[in-house]
Amino acid sequence: MGDIVIETERLVLRRIDESDAELQFRVLNTPTVMEHLGGVKELHEIEAKHAKSMAWFAQRGFGFMMMIEKSSGELVGHCGMKLVDNPLAPNQGDHEIGWLVREDRWRHGYANEAMRAVIDWAFATIGVPHLVALACDRNVPSWRFMEKLGMERRRDLDFDDPAYDPQDNPTIQYMLTREQWEQAQ
């Protein structure tokens, strides 16, 4: 199963390895899933993102992980944490969480289960001071989920990204502080 980082009731979150790019390309890289993320990616783009995540883990002890369903052994998504690295973001270097779930597993609670575990890991194990999550303003399910996770909108961190279509701007951000997380425990 690879390098397991986090285990939940229904999921194993494991480090990405070089063989995962093709799997992600086939399972997660659909027009619907990638609609608000710049569209379907080429295999080499996924390989580059995976290489970056593997480097994050090697250098910093965190990154993005593959979400594996325990009952079937199938890939249901990916999630994790990285540093905000968009050069247009006003908060480069903040710890950013993110997730992606394959379409046939939407509304099964996998993102919620995985991200609550990632948030706990980020604060309790990695020791981050706060977390942010980014989405485009029209991706209502994503930012509503951020609110469900206890995150608060930070309009002062919004920015436009010309790499995305105009309808996918601005990029908006939500934040969860260590104090907010501790109070919810």
From TrEMBL:
Residues 11-171 form the N-acetyltransferase domain. It holds the Pfam family Acetyltransf_3. Gene3D superfamilies: 3.40.630.30. It comes from the Bacteria. InterPro entries: Acyl_CoA_acyltransferase (IPR016181), GNAT_dom (IPR000182), N-acetyltransferase (IPR051531). CDD domains: NAT_SF. Transmembrane segments: none annotated. This is GNAT family N-acetyltransferase. It comes from Altererythrobacter litoralis.
